[in-house]
Amino acid sequence: MDLRSIIIAGVGGQGLVLATRIISEAAFKAGLDVKTNDVVGLSQRGGTVWGTVKMAETVHSPNILPGEADIVLGMEPLEALRWSHGLKEGGLVILNTNRVYPTPVLLEKEKYPEEEIEKLKEKFKVIEIDAQAEAKASGNIRAANTIILGVLSNFLEIEDEVWHEVLKENVPKKAVEENLVAFRRGKAYVRE
Are 23 and 86 spatial neighbours (Cβ–Cβ below 8 Å)? Predict the structure, then answer.
């Protein structure tokens, strides 16, 4: 596989660390060299969090310079916008449309940047998905990130069986089947 660089962007409490781990473990089990990092120290619930995953036959650093990422996995639209500077020209944004409004927006001191988020489509390929609604339809609203991972899997050369194995190892035992259904639903979303 050619080098794939992914930025995962979200807010505290969305499960970014677990999503980053699942992506990394799937790549590793697929025989790739993987480097990853995430920044969550000041996240608190609702605060900005992000991570990176780089995978290829050989990877020397998890750091992704501006304009080098292939994919931004936006668990929240504003966070996807914030990290879009990291994408290479024509890169892919997988965008969960479920908004988590920051405090200044809730206090009506700032506007949520709807227009700027919409303009991402002018520069990048954007796949929008309401991951919470899709997860609810899969039987577990808490599987929203698994929906997003299913979407992502269409753009990585990692077999579904590997993803399934990693999901089984990382989600609660009682939620395995619902997460597998959610993963398949996310994967099929791109094909529809």
Answer: no
The string of pLDDT tens digits covering residues 95-134 is: 999 998 888 888 899 999 999 999 999 999 999 999 999 9
Asked if residue 49 lies in contact with residue 42, where contact means CB atoms within 8 angstroms, the answer is no
Largest CA distance in the chain: 49
Run of H or E residues at 90: strand 87-96
Specify the amino acid at residue 97: T
Query: Would strands 33-39 and 48-56 be described as parallel, antiparallel, or unpaired?
Result: antiparallel
The H-assigned helical ranges of the chain are 16-29, 77-83, 103-106, 114-123, 131-138, 144-153, 160-170, 176-191
Round to whole Å and give the CA distance between 164 and 166. 6
Using CB atoms within 10 Å of the CB of residue 158, give its burial: 0 to 12 exposed, 13 to 18 middle, 19+ buried: buried
> pTM higher than 0.85 for the full model?
yes
